[in-house]
């Protein structure tokens, strides 16, 4: 029965209709299997604007009575529009169809039928449409059975693999469900084919989502793929891929896939609702772990396994906080950002979990053996910046990292270090993209001394003359001295860095020596002045 449905009412079946018993197929036999879905009558020359795919187009030939050769370009246009066949009644307005039109019909696979002079169009329309409607009613019947069968699979909780297996049996072609991360769930016939596909091949279905058909390179051969987006309400939807690998993809198959997409949308929405609850519990677990609210390692492991994240014994961890240099987004915006970062981390197979804790965007890095060493960790944070930077939308920020936690029980300590790093970055106005606790150096000491009388006296002793002179004369002596030290006391490099003449830098350095009464070539003096400059940066 299913095979009969696939055939529908074809152009070939027209010749079984009584009114077509004397009709003659002049050309375009390659299109005899085309299905007819409606009939249209053409008696105007601009009919091309009104035809639809699957139509049987009939004409008395009136539009071509002065120039039957106009049929040649029309046949090409009709073929491009997907018209099933063209029937022309001869003898009334011209005697015979030009040979060039027959050649065009053969060239484009467009059945060109010569209708007998006594053909009554109204009778033809009635008879043909009766057969089309009977065929379509059978299509609807088989479609209803398919939809009920697929619904039954989901209602009984058999899951997506069973759903795809049933769908494959119905349309007799392999089926693949592509999730937002390009992970595949495949029907039995599609599984071995997936193993032959390069990973980059799946990405083109995301970039060309407007295309309903595409081509998938499977090994050394190309397979036509029909693509249907699953309406699941997500930012990046699931895609249902039908590989036209076994048999032709018919009209009923297309309708079946449309309904299958809707049913999958309901199922995936339910799955997403369950996942959102799971994410909420995982988020709470991650916050409790970072904040040190889970006392027992046994409880920690049990909660991690309950959240679907069994902890590895050989892994270490490192907490980080994204510190915004200007206005920090509100908590709701941070939560949305954490959600997107978690999604991107999964997509890129980057072992980083994100949450919002104490009003801050917090990350927990899982470090494996391959991540050991400073260079490997810099590459890891660099890869995180690669996908985080565009999400910040030009907001300037620093990733402040705590010390590595060698055991699961030390994660709360790493988070406390990250918070301290964040405070020091803010107070000392550090501008590096990644700030590590172990590299804070003298800033950790200056942070501890902030606000003390001793630190204020230290700054007055070494910097007060320069600050007063800069304030009165709107000068840049302090900035010149800072740049001079950053350039390893090289006056020429300092001039290049500040886009000034070499003599100007030397003049300013002499002025600084005179105002401070200090030698800039003395190592101890250089150390004291650099400490004073950095302490002045603290707010």
From TrEMBL:
<dbReference type="Pfam" id="PF13556">
    <property type="entry name" value="HTH_30"/>
</dbReference>
<feature type="domain" description="Purine catabolism PurC-like">
    <location>
        <begin position="14"/>
        <end position="131"/>
    </location>
</feature>
<dbReference type="Pfam" id="PF17853">
    <property type="entry name" value="GGDEF_2"/>
</dbReference>
<dbReference type="InterPro" id="IPR025736">
    <property type="entry name" value="PucR_C-HTH_dom"/>
</dbReference>
<dbReference type="InterPro" id="IPR051448">
    <property type="entry name" value="CdaR-like_regulators"/>
</dbReference>
<feature type="domain" description="CdaR GGDEF-like">
    <location>
        <begin position="297"/>
        <end position="422"/>
    </location>
</feature>
<dbReference type="InterPro" id="IPR041522">
    <property type="entry name" value="CdaR_GGDEF"/>
</dbReference>
<comment type="similarity">
    <text>Belongs to the CdaR family.</text>
</comment>
<feature type="domain" description="PucR C-terminal helix-turn-helix">
    <location>
        <begin position="477"/>
        <end position="534"/>
    </location>
</feature>
<dbReference type="Pfam" id="PF07905">
    <property type="entry name" value="PucR"/>
</dbReference>
<protein>
    <submittedName>
        <fullName>PucR family transcriptional regulator</fullName>
    </submittedName>
</protein>
<dbReference type="InterPro" id="IPR012914">
    <property type="entry name" value="PucR_dom"/>
</dbReference>
<dbReference type="InterPro" id="IPR042070">
    <property type="entry name" value="PucR_C-HTH_sf"/>
</dbReference>
């Amino acid at each position: 029965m299913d095979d009969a449905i696939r055939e529908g009412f074809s152009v070939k079946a027209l010749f079984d209709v009584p009114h077509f018993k004397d009709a003659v197929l002049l050309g375009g036999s390659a299109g005899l299997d085309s299905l007819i879905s409606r009939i249209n009558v053409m008696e105007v020359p601009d009919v091309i604007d009104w035809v639809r795919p699957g139509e049987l187009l009939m004409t008395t030939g009136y539009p071509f009575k002065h120039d039957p050769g106009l049929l040649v370009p029309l046949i090409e246009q009709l073929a491009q529009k997907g018209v099933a066949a063209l029937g022309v009644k001869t003898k009334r307005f011209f005697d015979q169809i030009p040979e060039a039109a027959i050649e065009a019909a053969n060239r484009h696979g467009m059945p060109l039928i010569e209708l007998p002079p006594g053909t009554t169009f109204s009778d033809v329309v009635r008879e043909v449409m009766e057969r089309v409607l009977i065929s379509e009613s059978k299509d609807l019947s088989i479609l209803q059975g398919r939809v009920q069968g697929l619904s039954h699979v989901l209602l009984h909780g058999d899951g997506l693999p069973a759903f795809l297996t049933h769908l494959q049996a119905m349309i007799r072609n392999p089926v693949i469900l592509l999730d937002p991360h390009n992970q595949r769930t495949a029907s039995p016939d599609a599984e071995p084919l997936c193993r032959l596909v390069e990973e980059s091949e799946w990405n083109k279905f995301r970039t060309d989502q407007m295309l309903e058909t595409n081509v998938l390179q499977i090994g050394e051969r190309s397979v036509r793929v029909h693509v249907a987006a699953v309406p699941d309400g997500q930012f990046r939807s699931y895609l249902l891929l039908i590989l036209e690998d076994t048999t032709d993809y018919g009209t009923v198959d297309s309708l079946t896939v449309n309904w299958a997409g809707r049913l999958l949308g309901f199922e995936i929405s339910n799955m997403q609702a369950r996942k959102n609850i799971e994410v909420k519990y995982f988020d709470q677990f991650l916050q409790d772990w970072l904040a040190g609210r889970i006392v027992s390692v046994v409880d920690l492991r049990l909660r991690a396994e309950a959240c679907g994240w069994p902890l590895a014994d050989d892994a270490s961890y490192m907490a980080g906080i994204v510190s915004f240099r200007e206005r920090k987004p509100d908590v709701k915006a941070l939560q949305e950002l954490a959600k997107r970062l978690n999604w991107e981390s999964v997509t890129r197979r980057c072992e980083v979990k994100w949450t919002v804790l104490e009003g801050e965007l917090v990350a927990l890095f899982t470090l494996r053996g391959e991540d050991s060493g400073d260079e490997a960790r810099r590459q890891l944070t660099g890869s995180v910046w690669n996908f985080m930077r565009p999400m910040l939308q030009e907001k300037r920020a620093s990733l402040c990292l705590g010390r590595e936690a060698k055991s699961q029980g030390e994660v709360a300590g790493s988070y406390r270090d990250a918070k301290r790093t964040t405070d020091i970055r803010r107070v000392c106005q550090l501008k590096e993209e990644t700030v590590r606790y172990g590299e804070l150096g003298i800033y950790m000491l200056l942070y501890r001394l902030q606000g003390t009388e001793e630190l204020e006296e230290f700054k007055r002793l070494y910097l007060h003359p320069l600050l007063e002179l800069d304030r009165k004369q709107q000068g840049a002596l302090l900035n010149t001295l800072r740049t001079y030290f950053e350039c390893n006391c090289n006056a020429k490099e300092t001039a290049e860095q500040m886009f000034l003449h070499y003599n100007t830098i030397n003049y300013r350095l002499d002025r600084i020596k005179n105002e401070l009464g200090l030698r800039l070539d003395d190592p101890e003096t250089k150390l004291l002045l650099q400490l004073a400059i950095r302490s002045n940066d603290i707010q």
